[in-house]
Amino acid sequence: MSFYSKRPRGAASVQVFRDSMMQCDTLPLSDVIQGELFEEAFDRFDVDFGADDDAVYTPALVLWALVSQALFTKTQRSLTAAVTRIASWWACQGRVVGDTSTGAYSRARHKLPVGSIAWLTQTIAQRCECSEDLVDAIDEDMAEETLTPDVVGRVRKKSIAGRVILVDGFTVDAADTPANQQEYPQNPSQKEGLGFPMLRCVSLISMATGLLIDLAIGPYAGKQSGETALLRQLFPNLHRGDIIVADSFYCSYWLLAYCQINGIEVAMKNHHKREDCPVAAKKISKHQRTTTWLRPTRPSWMSEEDYDSIPDQLEVRLVDVKVNRPGFRTEGFTVATTMLDHKSCPAEWIASLYRSRWIVELDIESIKCSLEMEHLRAKTPEMVRRELWSCLLAYNLIRMKMLQSGAASNRDVRSMSFTRCMTLLATNWLLCGARGTNEALVELGQSQPLDEVIGHRPDRVEPRVNKRRPKVLKLMSKPRSEYDRQLANAV
């Protein structure tokens, strides 16, 4: 393995990503982010700027800087910090960048299509999920040896044809500019000038790996802006044999029908407007039954052709899940699933499958809180989406690094700390990207994600309270322009 290279590194080369990710060819999943992946993304989306010999901002360096902004927070996420990292990268190659203003970098970012970043994010997840370095089914002894959390271990005891995909939605806000407000209006319940542009997102996240498979983005309110409408945009990313797990909000006839047609299984909490114990249901056991759902009338958003392609009825299995833990809001609920065979998919496994849905809350917390994506800084809708997908690309790269450590050390990724691995990459992003890696750095990258054990918190119950008191300021009750006029007219 080579040590630090003293030779200048090519600015057009995507080797900068492999170096910043502390890679070598002997690591598991090392083929996921080979150079041709990024080159394919640039070719696919016609990215051709920065080809001159004296160019400072090449596609590879701009994307590298965008990801670096996602790895840092506050002032280290600024344009100035990103430009400084690029200038420092060039300084390590022996070249001084004379102009370190943010204008050129900002213009270069706009030449990098949002679609190329989204495609990279999705493709990295797809390659990792298909890798032979990852084990599918595990037994009880293996779950204990790999420190697999109980809820994940119980689900992975059964071998399935596809993936277990957790579905959930969340919101983020953006800088309050007219352009952002026009495309992503603020919450309609707020007065004009008092809110922030709101984006509604629906995510598909792998239960086994934590990788984000895809994301749909839309305005917070308006026609076809709900989570179920956004989920329909993600249907092409669901494959035959997959199992999607979601809460009762998504439990609709249309979703289950689509999944049945395409060979996708579903496990969702039964919608509160549907009977848990229908009179005509066929009893399987005391806590299991099958029932028939009839096709509702055609909704306004569905074409007649699509409506005619949907079956007139669906057979659904209802499984009662009892909760015997103090502090929980419910003593039990019912899961609706398209997995009708109660012998190959027993009720206990269905209960564990739905119980694993809680993990997606931690993944979204990692995205919104650890990566501080809850409040986006960009001032135009296009840059908002670019910033969002850059953060998601950083998220999947962190998850990939965790998977590498786990695959090499026989450790489940769900027992590792996301924040610790994020800190590892952020600390070494410029160092390794500019100077390359050596054996010690590769070893550090493999060992540090394993230093903490988390995830063994079954049915965690904690009060949602803060000990530290925030500074209390009077909340804005009218637009800032009115405050300015009031101060200007003060005597």
TrEMBL record:
Q: Which PANTHER family match?
A: TRANSPOSASE INSG FOR INSERTION SEQUENCE ELEMENT IS4-RELATED
List each copy of the Transposase IS4-like domain by range: 163-397
The name under which this protein is listed is IS4 family transposase
Task: Give the highest taxon in the source lineage.
Answer: Bacteria
Listed InterPro entries: RNaseH-like_sf, Transpos_IS4, Transposase_11
